[in-house]
Amino acid sequence: MLDYEREAARYDATRGGVPRARAAAEAVLGLVPREARTLLDAGCGTGLVTQRYARPGLRVLGVDGATAMARIARARTGPGVMVADVRRLPFATGSLDAVSTVWVLHLLPFATDVVAECARVLRPGGVLVTTVDKDAGHDVGSDIDALLGPFRRREPYDAEGPVLRHAAAHGLRPAGEARFTGHGQGRAPRELAARIAAGHFASALVLGEGDVASLAGRLAALPDQDRPRPDPVYRLVALAKGPDSATAAAR
Description:
Number of helices: 9
CATH superfamily: Vaccinia Virus protein VP39
Strand content: 15-25%
Helix content: 25-40%
CATH class: Alpha Beta
Largest sheet: 7 strands, mixed
Number of domains: 1
Order of helices and strands: HHEEHEEHEHHEHHEH
Shape: globular
Strand order of the largest sheet: 3-2-1-4-5-7-6
Number of strands: 7
Structural class: alpha/beta
CATH architecture: 3-Layer(aba) Sandwich
Distance between the termini: 29 Å
C-alpha cells in the first residue's frame, strides 16, 4: 500500500480534485436519509469529499489512519476529524446515523473487518454507503484496459459479493445504489506506467517479477501517450442496519 503520510501533499492533484470529489459527495448524499443527523466519513483522506457532505442539520465527522491526511481534512472541515484505525472507530456502538467509505475498501485486505466495524457504530436504521468494485470502474474498454486485464486481481478487496455477504452477517441489507463519474481520472499510458512503477496499484494488480518492466514496455508502445482515456464510473451501494441487528453488530 502507498505511504499516505507522504502522499497527502499531492493526493488531491493526482485524484481528480474538486470535480471528482463533488460527484462523489452528491452521489453519497443521495443515499443518506434526509433524517440523518450524523455522518462519519471513514477513511476520509484529505477531506475533499468530506467537506462536500455539508447539508443543513447534518453533523459530518471524519476518521483517517494517516496523520498527514487527517491534518489536511481537519483544516478543511473542522475539529470533527480524528486519526484512528478504521477497524477500531472511536464511537460508541449504535451512535451514528450514517457512515461512508469512499475509495477505501479496495485498498484493504481487511475490508470485511471495516464493514463489521461500520455496522457496529450504526444505530438501527442507519446506513453504510460504500464504493464497491472500485478498480473495475476504471475498465472502460480502452487499449490500456486490454493490457491490464491479465494482471487484475481476481477477487478485489471491495468485491461486491463478499462485501454484501459480510454486511448481511452484521445486520446490513442493500438499500439502494448509485453511480458517479470519476472526473479527471481517465488514464494515459505514460502517466500510468510511472504510477505502476511507483507502486500505486499494488491492491489492484498482481504483478510478478519482471511484470512491471514488461507492462511498462507495452504501455509505451500504445499511441497517444499523454491522452487520457475515458473517465471511470464508480459504484456505490447503501446498506441499511435493521432494527433487530444491534446485538449482531456488537459481536
